[in-house]
TrEMBL record:
Family the UniProt entry places it in: Belongs to the class-III pyridoxal-phosphate-dependent aminotransferase family. ArgD subfamily.
Residue positions where N6-(pyridoxal phosphate)lysine is found in the record: 235
Cofactor note: Binds 1 pyridoxal phosphate per subunit.
Protein name: Acetylornithine aminotransferase
Complex formation: Homodimer.
One GO cellular component term: cytoplasm
EC number from the UniProt entry: 2.6.1.11
Residues binding pyridoxal 5'-phosphate, per UniProt: 95-96, 122, 206-209, 264
Lineage per the UniProt record: Bacteria, Bacillati, Bacillota, Bacilli, Bacillales
Pathway the protein acts in: Amino-acid biosynthesis; L-arginine biosynthesis; N(2)-acetyl-L-ornithine from L-glutamate: step 4/4
Annotated source species: Exiguobacterium sp. (strain ATCC BAA-1283 / AT1b)
PANTHER family, per database record: ACETYLORNITHINE AMINOTRANSFERASE, MITOCHONDRIAL, AMINOTRANSFERASE CLASS III
Molecular function via GO: identical protein binding; N2-acetyl-L-ornithine:2-oxoglutarate 5-aminotransferase activity; pyridoxal phosphate binding
């Protein structure tokens, strides 16, 4: 009998070992991993520097709670915010928790309930975040939702009509990950920022998937005209050790006082060791340039499959890339795993590529060869 709740689909691959861009399953089969725990292991699997820092921490202390000072939190907060207009951090354990913290913060700050999120967005699966998420499939059977989330159209100037003096916050992903790797357009973001300024509306950017160098900058919003009041993070922050965070401006940092929010595990010493080491590896000019260069290289390689019929577009930022098909891609994802390449869908029609941010050209070439092999077999190319 399967003693797990059936919240996930059938899972046939169990990974037993992982290193860099490669994983090996329990039968000994090796795969090139272009999923990376769904945009989590940005430094690749078991990066030696990150592993060493985690091991050093494991040899000192694992957990203390936030009753006691955890100095790693201060160092990680500084590494996340230095050189930006953001100044403060709160640590939690996941993306959904980070978004919940941001939700509480803007509610308390503005004392308004109306929040604008966007169609096809994904913000998590707690009750408030189900309400925030602009995809019906995640809400099905759980209604009524936390009220006052309005799903305005993404990349559409009609969204501006919803923004008024009653609006607490505009809440968005710069690249919608689960929604199909859809990149927000700069002109639209500029218009959102202007409307937010006009009506004193707060801006929350959900960088849970885009954050920590995934798009070629520390945060994706840095490539846009937006100046968010709150940024939410998780996934790539700990290289695979669970950690989430919100970052705030100085004004937003005055909203929570002692007792207004907290977490037993949040900012735990082991999580902070993982986060600090991850930032050391990824937030260098060389690493960020590498992400942009490899992203361009992968996009260029994928664009040769775009024929306007079966594949219509390659889109994304940095190493968060989608190959958009006119047909469902689930079978191709399965077949790619069979030939040793792990990729993940972003909605039914998009094959999503989320390799290690340290991925090499030859690993990208290997992925492209495997993709070509499958598409040739299917008579697509
Ligand atoms: C943009 C975004 N926000 C929030 C979440 C939820 O994060 P978590 O699964 O860590 O709770 C995800 C997860 O895919 C995400 O992509």
């Amino acid at each position: 009998m399967n003693s797990l709740l059936p919240t996930y689909g059938p899972r046939t691959i169990e990974i037993a070992q992982a290193s860099g861009s490669y994983v090996t399953d329990v039968s000994g089969k090796t795969y090139l991993d272009f999923v990376m725990g769904i945009a989590v292991c940005g430094t690749g699997h078991r990066h030696p520097y990150v592993q060493q820092k985690i091991e050093d921490q494991l040899n000192r202390v694992w957990h203390t709670s936030n009753l006691y000072l955890i100095s790693g939190q201060q160092r990680v907060a500084e590494k996340l915010t230095n050189g930006t207009h953001l100044t403060h951090a709160f640590f939690c354990n996941s993306g959904t928790e980070a978004n919940e913290a941001a939700f509480k913060l803007v509610r308390k700050w503005t004392q308004k309930t109306k929040i604008i999120t966007f169609t096809q967005s994904f913000h998590g699966r707690t009750f408030a975040m189900l309400g925030a998420t602009g995809q019906e499939k995640v809400k099905h059977g759980f209604g009524p939702m936390v009220s006052d989330f309005i799903h305005a159209p993404f990349n559409d100037m009609n969204a501006l009509d919803w923004i008024d003096d009653e609006t607490s916050a505009i809440w968005l992903e710069i690249v919608q990950g689960e929604g199909g790797v859809v990149v927000a357009e700069a002109s639209w973001l500029r218009a959102l920022q202007e409307a937010a300024d006009k009506h004193d509306v707060k801006i929350v950017v959900d960088e849970v998937q885009t954050g920590i160098a995934r798009t070629g900058t520390r945060f994706a919003y840095e490539q846009t005209p937006l100046r968010p009041h709150v940024v939410t993070l998780a996934k790539g922050l700990g290289s695979g050790i669970p950690v989430g965070a919100i970052l705030t401006t100085p004004e937003a940092a005055t909203v929570f006082g002692p007792g207004s929010h907290g977490s037993t595990f949040g900012g735990n010493p082991v999580a902070m060791a993982a986060a600090e080491a991850t930032l050391d590896v990824l937030l260098t000019p060389e690493s960020l340039k590498h992400v942009t260069d490899m992203g361009d290289y992968l996009k260029g390689g994928l664009s040769r499959f775009v024929d306007g019929e079966r594949f219509v577009e390659v889109r994304g930022l940095g190493l968060m890339i989608g190959l958009v098909s006119t047909e469902p891609v689930a079978d191709w994802v399965t077949e790619l795993a069979e030939v040793g390449l792990l990729v993940v869908m972003a909605g039914p029609h998009v094959i999503r590529f989320l390799p290690s941010l340290l991925v090499t050209k030859s690993e990208i070439d290997e992925a492209l060869t495997k993709l070509e092999q499958i598409l040739q077999k299917e008579g697509v190319v």
